Amino acid sequence: MDFINKAENFAPSAIQMLPLCHLFLIFLLYSFIGWCSEVLYVGVFYEHKFINRGFLHGPICPVYGFGGLVVMMLPEKVRASWITLFVTSMALCSFVEYVTSWQMEKIFKMKWWDYSERKFNINGRVCLLNSTLFGVLGLVVVRFVQPFVDRMVHKIDSTVTMYLADGLAFVFIVDVLLTIHKLIDFSTTMAKLKEFGESLRERYAGEQWFISTSIADMFASIKEHAAVERNKFSDSLMQKIDSFNEHHFDFEKFVARFPRISSLSYRESLALVKQRFEERVADRKAAFAKRRKLK
User: Fold this and answer.
1) What is the pLDDT of residues 6-33, one digit of tens each?
2) pLDDT tens across 120-145, in order?
3) CA gap 33, 289 in Å, rounded
4) How far apart are CA 286 and CA 97, in angstroms?
5) Are 88 and 131 in contact (CB under 8 A)?
6) What is the C-alpha to C-alpha distance for residues 295 and 293, in angstroms, rounded to an integer?
7) How buried is residue 53: exposed, middle or buried, by Cβ count under 10 Å (0-12/13-18/19+)?
8) pTM above 0.90, yes or no
């Protein structure tokens, strides 16, 4: 009997018995809850404005969806105790966040969030404060959200659920593909900008007028000198500078969503994008102030 009781304690949770379409909808629900948490936590309490904290266009953060499913699939004995559930949620969700951060940096050579300034962090990828919030979120989901979801699952017709899951899956896949395309484009552009900056340093390093402290300074010094001696610079060079120097709204959105984004490989390239983003924000504020003044 003891063996049977132990087996029941570690039996799979009810969520594992659900059809794939139900699991996908629950994954989206947790992803949406995570997105709301990020918007409130970062956008409201830190940035004091609305910020879409997800990589995707839609209001979801998939990392929370995966974390939520992992927590819900824990054995019943783990989920039965508040303390065990809290600690396990902390550990598992922190692991998911750490691996996600590491993989994103490895693929795109950029660190999208950084908790280095917070106490008790691990390589800036996870920190005690966020891990504690993951534990609290795990408790809320398991104790309050999932029971409600379980009741709703049994009330919705299976055919409706299947069509709803199919439709949302299509939107989700399209969103993921578009986002991956933009992320690859972002990383590729940063690499090209780095290479271009290095070539400018090699070409004009001996010139007194050339300022090489940053890519922005290099561009500014070349454009300033070109106004005096235009014949020394080819049209293709000036066009390339203008192309890199202009506002790239898709790239600047990443900076807006992840203010602590950093990169060892593309440090100067990213600095230029951040500078252009700050200039755009300043221009918007100035235009808004001007409109208010005219009223």
Assistant:
1) 444 444 455 666 788 888 999 999 999 8
2) 999 999 999 999 999 998 999 888 88
3) 35
4) 38
5) no
6) 5
7) buried
8) no
